[in-house]
Prior knowledge:
The protein has helices spanning 18-29, 71-76, 86-92, 95-101, 121-128, 151-161, 219-232, 260-266, 270-288; strands at residues 4-9, 33-38, 42-44, 49-51, 54-55, 59-64, 79-83, 112-116, 132-136, 145-148, 166-171, 179-186, 189-197, 211-214, 236-242, 249-254. The chain is α+β, with helices and mostly antiparallel strands. It has three domains: 4-83, Rossmann fold (3-Layer(aba) Sandwich), CATH 3.40.50; 111-172, Dna Ligase, domain 1 (2-Layer Sandwich), CATH 3.30.1490; 176-276, ATP-grasp fold, B domain (D-amino Acid Aminotransferase, Chain A, domain 1, 2-Layer Sandwich), CATH 3.30.470.20. Strands 14-13-12-15-16 form a five-stranded antiparallel β-sheet. Strand 3 (42-44) and strand 4 (49-51) form a beta hairpin. The radius of gyration is 20 Å and the shape is globular.
Amino acid sequence: MLIKGYIIEKYNKMTNAYTCNRLVEEAEKLEMDLKIVGIHDTMILENEIRNHGIKLEKRDFIINRYKWGKEKDKINSLAVKSYNPLDAYNIYINKYEQVKRLHSKEFIVPKYLLGTAMLPFEEIAALLGKPFVAKGLESSMGEQIALVEKEEDLKELCKNYGMEKEWLFEEYITTSFGRDMRFYSIRGEVVACMQRKSQGDFRANVALGAGVEAFEITPGIRQIAKDIYKQTGLDFLGIDLLFGKDKPYFCEINVMPGIEGIEKATGVNVAKKIVETIRNDFLQKENLN
């Protein structure tokens, strides 16, 4: 049985994209046919989808690695199964939906509010404290994340992104300055965990130059992964926590997490585990038939 799939990304040729190229590499080792489909190389017609002028065929599965727009939704219609499932994927790309919906006894959700940068600084600060953090609702890799210390910082957000843009404003967790933890969950099971540390930035994103090191997988971390999988049904997740005094704070989940940092920090072949999980779904289905 030849299992075929697409990865939805920005372009067909993702030369320097570690994660999607690793997935293709591991799929080839398992004799699966996995191709990258770039949103910017694709057009949606009334009755077909073309990529570089060639009609896309139906496939067994889709791996969603692009957040925006309607094209990804239409490409998903070509597959029997999507990873992550499209309905949940479209909900949880949004950081506000995450803090509103997710909970666990093993973490604290920071105080938060949703609004635009036109809100009065002192009004937000009275609710969240000074300084506070502003997060773009669908941002990633540390982009659109800002520490708001004064009124001028809010004005800068308006200037750079427009007054209509909504932000998730959160209390600033000082105990986690420049560091956080990221663990990779496959259907509620933690397969790898790392700590990320920045050099002077309050954000700890690998894309911004943070260093990484393996981190102990505790019973609390395992329980968080189980809780979030039960609540979301998302197969493959990066889960980020901030360090608190007594227990961690929820930071965010990433529905299209990169794996470069966590593979290098832990030595775990996360790409192989992802592809094996997908393959086993179809092999089990074939055996049942």
